[in-house]
Amino acid sequence: MTTHTEAEIASQPECWRRAVENVPVDALPRPGERVAVVGCGTSWFIAMAYATLRERAGLGETDAFAASEAPTGRRYDRVLALTRSGTTTEVLELLGKLGDTRTTAITADPNTPIMSAAEQVIVLDYADEKSVVQTRFATTQLAMLRASLGEDLTQAIADVEEAVAVPLPEQLVEAEQFSFLGSGWSVGLAQEAALKMREASRSWTEAYPAMEYRHGPISIAGPGRVTWMLGSAPEGLREQVEATGGGFFESALDPMAELVRAQRVAVARAFARGLNPDEPLHLTRSVILSS
User: Fold this and answer.
1) What is the pTM of this model?
2) What is the DSSP letter of 167?
3) Which of the residues 16, 84, 259, 291 could staple to 143 if both were Cys, CB 3.0 to 4.6 A apart?
């Protein structure tokens, strides 16, 4: 029987197509605006990826913050809040403190407090999820945001079709430990890949910018452990990791598609450990804090 998480992972190619065909440009940050992108957990990591992409596209200063750590005294033209559930306490509290700053939110559920907390709201209800572990909503909103920056995601969509279909290497399913690496916008994706492994399968995972890995974290590499690069690895890094006896994985897939492959590995590892990825331990769909 297919779990909700498996079905949602497999649906991502179609979700991405729909997202890039329906970009609500008027509600998103405009060229030249100084923007803060906020979220919690997965949404924070997606915020990191978008912020890097937007700033590198020359469209304006863009910062990413965990909602609980966003500086309310710093002036921004717009705050973009990412929240699948629309109920996350830290996001709602932050939006309530922003005064006359323009606010936009992206959510999956139109029947939640975020609809009145933000000035403009983009609802991606077709990418909503029954599972606690967030997969397709995260990547679908990033696909839409990438398209809003003028990116052509034709190849990325072809890549994700491959990512949801190819067999998974047993080495990844059986590994003792993972270190996910990224560069530029894929640093956030590396953090998200590590989070999926923890949430779905309780795996030991870490994540770093690729060039930082040799500044200490490589000491964890060794037999039975995997260093997994999302994007292109720095020159010589593969050789250094393999010299430790550890495995090194990278591919030519779009980093967002490679994240989807990591999602699949997380589910496979959950099954191998007798866990249900639809019911991760100690987690709920949304963190709602009591006052």
Assistant:
1) 0.95
2) P
3) 16
